[in-house]
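This week, look over our next protein:
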Amino acid sequence: MSVQTEGTDTAGEPAVRKARVPAPPRGEDRTSGSPAGRRAVAAPYLLLLPALLATLILLGWPLVKNGMLSFQNLNPRQLIQHLTEWNGVDNYKEVLAGSDFWKVVERSLLFTAANVVLIMVFGTLIGLLLARLGKKMRLTLLIGLVLAWAMPVIAATTVYQWLFAQRYGVVNWVLDKLGWHSMADHNWLATQFSTFAVITLLIVWMSIPFVAINLYAATTTIPKELYEAASLDGAGAWQSFTSVTLPFLRPFLYSTTFLEVIWVFKAFAQVFAMNAGGPDRLTETLPVYAYVEGVGNQHFGVGAAISFLTILVLLVMTSYYLRMVLKQEEDEL
């Protein structure tokens, strides 16, 4: 009796047919159906849950409450009598119909643009300088940058008020000694331009360390072989910078500019503590304008509406930079 086999190998012995195990679909985890797999998938979301709850409680609820106030007629009378008077969009109409709001918007945009340009230019130059200095000089400069960065905002503003004081300020004394005797009793906070000049100097001085230190950290990630290859190709210092350094630093420059626009635009303490938006409210930016109208003039509903419009203006300003950052991340993926 003969036995028929399905196949034989080259040695004449029966071949063993191996069962094929179907591969799991692409993109599906083999353990996703098991309890351990489900826990692994849910772990990142559970880790993010405390931060999301803190954000909703500390930022979300005040934002909702502020939005509700912007649709109310809330003045001292309503606060004392605990009244809630809804007036729809009247607060927004009052703000948008007035010319003061649009003047403050234009002033805030120009103020932000001037500060961000100065911060990025000087911060980038100092960051590149850090990359070329020796260890001792780099450490000395880093300590100075960190001290300037760590100084509290109000303390730094007070120091600048002393420096530019009219009678006993160091700046006026130095200018007088150098021959500009008319500057001996100069009031730097008397005009719009000079007040903004002092505030800009303060904000730029406080912001440069962030840009410079982070830029220096970014330069340490550039491979040295690229500079060696560029030098072998005959590239000079400027060509090495444009062909090697700048492409590596471009994502950093985009993201840092985005952050500086937000930080400068919402600067409140420096502007208000320096001269309370004076003289004649000519140095009020949108955050200061919202505070003065809301808390100073006790028109809390109007102040809430201005603060919401401030957020919208900031979103419009940063949308271009945000698109560039997101596009850069997509290109890297």
Observations:
- Confidence is low (pLDDT under 50) at residues 1-19, 27-31.
